[in-house]
Amino acid sequence: MQSISISSGHSGASHAESHGYSLYQEAWMSLKHAIDADLSQVSGFIFQKIDRFIQNNHENWLIASGLTPAGQLNDTDFFPGVRTGQIPTALLLAGVNTPDHNLIYRQIFSSVWMQNGRVALINPGTDTASSRLLVASVVKQFLQPDSDTIGALNPGFPHTVLLDDEELFTQDNSLHSFPSTTKFTYLALSEWYHSRQKISRHQSPSDLSRGASIPAPHSRRSLSQPSARTPGRQLRSSMFPRSNQAPRSLGRRAFDVGSDVHAKTITPVSKRSSSVLSDRTKEVSLDNPGPLVIILPQVESIPSHVLEEFIHLTSIYLSGPSDGCSRGLPIYLVLGLSTSPEAGFESRLCASTLGRLKTERFTVPPPASFLETVFEALIHFPGFRLTHSMTTHLVDSLFLCLDYSVQNFLRRIQFCMLEHYLNCPNPELLLPIERARAYLTALPPTELANMLTLHYPSVTSLVTDPSMSPPVSPTGRVKTKPTVVDRLVTQLASHWKLQYLVSPLLSWFQFICSSLSAQPLGKSTLSLYRTWLKNGLTQSEEFKLTLNLLSGLTKDNLLQAIDRAAGWLGSHLQNEKVGRFCNLWSPSIVQECCSELRQLERTTRHWYESLDAASTKINTGSGITGLETGPTGSPVGVSPASQALNGKQRISRWGLRQHLQQIAASSPARYSSPCSRPQTPWEQERSAFLTWLRCELSRLIPCPSNLPLHEVFYGPIGQRTTDSSPQQLISLSVRRRLNPPYQKCVHQALRDPGTYLQISQFQLDSPDSLNPALPDLCILYKLHLESTKMINLYDWLMAFATVLGEEVDREHPPAKSTQARFFHGIAQLHQFGYIKPTRHKADHVMRLTWGIAV
């Protein structure tokens, strides 16, 4: 992840700004390490599966090639495609191809490299117009890996100087005799790979340099494998040789192999290059050769016919020529798919091509799981917190609408934290309680008063409240009145307690709601946290609906949910997760919050026992209060005449309805509302539990914006308005920096570059004026804004030359240099998409910039 840095400005920059930046760096590094560790655990299992898939298939290839004892073969893991030409292929179902998937590919690169293998990563920008170009790109990366990638994976290794193509084939003796037409083909790769294999198995490099002869492999003609006999000959479009023509052999060549060719380095044959592997890896470099892994992150971007030809060629050199697997290559494919395999991969290939692949599917976790992991670390991190409006903007407007990239999401959080620390008047208040108290004590009284009245309006009423009297001790003696610093420290401590308790309490409440079929508050901790940030958890309509749903749960489901919540809270207290942030939490805060959680666990278990007892209690009596029965068993006060109905008397439907309404109105057992119905012991105990649940959540995790000094912890702080809503507004500058309106930014930069780009020499008297000192692109853009839909190029050229100060007319055309500058600017405007040529008039262009806001 790229770090964000700022310049300290001129020498007169304030010390508070630089100190705030140092505090930001300290806090961000602690948060970043925790998030990286959590994300590596989430994405680690998919990488481990792919790495195990490659290792198992490569071990089977080594056994089938006779490079390892056959007794080590595992029948359950044996890959039958080794001798049938099937390529072991890992289909990585990555969903939307975001920048985060590069981390998985780099992990695969690092693992294969440490196994003495090579990796070819075909980026989306690589030219894949033909299978020949694709094979050349793959082989080139195998022969000479990218030093930048190796340096990123192994920062401690020295930088490696890569060789050009001619130097590589000149220095490496195993590739010395290959003509230009067979450079970077599978034939050259096979010779290079197996020459290294012979050295590592039979002789030392010094022995082979005395004249060992290494036979060249048989070749097959294909689109990307031309014949060495006729280099300039055009090749057939068929993938296989003719049926009546046997594959031609290139004969036997003698190669003078140097001693440094087969050392496991990036460029072992160059004196300019240095090793990129550690001494431990060099010791293993003479063991069995490693796998050759080809990674295609976006396989949908490769044309179907190119992909088919590439798979056919790779399968030929996987199984080797006619002499079996002795000259085959251990090639493995890792294909990244954005869509389903049936739609984006299998439907694009023919049956014969699919038969050459032995595929296994691997699914990357969805972006929501990575986002949940990031927010778990953010919730556990003490100090800075995002406001609800900023969280909603980052998640809903940017993450879910732009790129689904967690790495970009972390950069935006990093920018928000930097913005908050630089704009916060007193970033030292974000430090632990002891350090914050020391900072407040050292402030002069006047600066402390200005800080409270100007920067933190939420604490003004607390400091100036005359109703607050000094506390009285049990002996009747008046204690010392708390100072302003004591009150401020108390409010800071309340925020620290709130930040410590919010995560376990939200998880505890989530376990209580786990038995609900419909969960209005959401099924993730992130949704609960966002509801709590907005207005408090208990004040939301979703919380009230959740309590109503809990009151309708069956006895067994509610008891099981409460038991799971109490059990989770007990296990959480035993395995506390603040170890990664232990240096940021005050010991007194941790001790007080742990005592609250233990008390909550005991109370939850008490409620479980009370509800369990109430569920088994039998309700004696009639269950109806205020109803007396007579000797015959009928309720007293009900007229027998009104109850009896003469069966012989005919009655209409309306009369029957009136009769039933009369009986209901005269019955003493009639209830005015459902609330007047007597409750069973279970219902009474359940109602008391839900009331206690609401009160406990309101007491332990209130809305943070209702507490004093909330401006210190929750940001970035937006512009203050007269709105009394507790939700803070996002600063407009922060929103524009996180997701700038590109069209409007380009428009303003071209229209008034002096103001927008802050360049003094381009300053204008008004945005509509023109100055010959402006860049040509700006002049042409402002001129085209004054035209209609169709722009005459001749008139445009004359106006452009006039602005530059030339006196032009029909007899005195603009200078050649002016015309060249004009057409260069026209080409730039066309590239931007502001104009386009028209077929009706050759000397006119069409304007495409209607509706741009000024």
From TrEMBL:
CDD domains noted in UniProt: Orc3
All copies of domain Origin recognition complex subunit 3 N-terminal, residue ranges: 19-425
Biased composition (Polar residues): 235-247
Record keywords: DNA replication, DNA-binding, Nucleus
UniProt-annotated stretches for the region Disordered: 200-249
Source species, domain of life: Eukaryota
Main location: nucleus
Subcellular location: Nucleus
GO terms assigned for molecular function: DNA replication origin binding
BP GO terms, sorted: DNA replication initiation
Domain Origin recognition complex subunit 3 winged helix C-terminal as annotated: residue spans: 746-850
Keyword DNA-binding carried by entry: yes
Coiled-coil intervals, chain numbering: none
GO cellular component: a single term: nuclear origin of replication recognition complex
Protein family membership: Belongs to the ORC3 family.
Protein name as it appears in the record: Uncharacterized protein
Source species of the chain: Opisthorchis felineus
The organism's taxonomic lineage, starting at the top: Eukaryota, Metazoa, Spiralia, Lophotrochozoa, Platyhelminthes
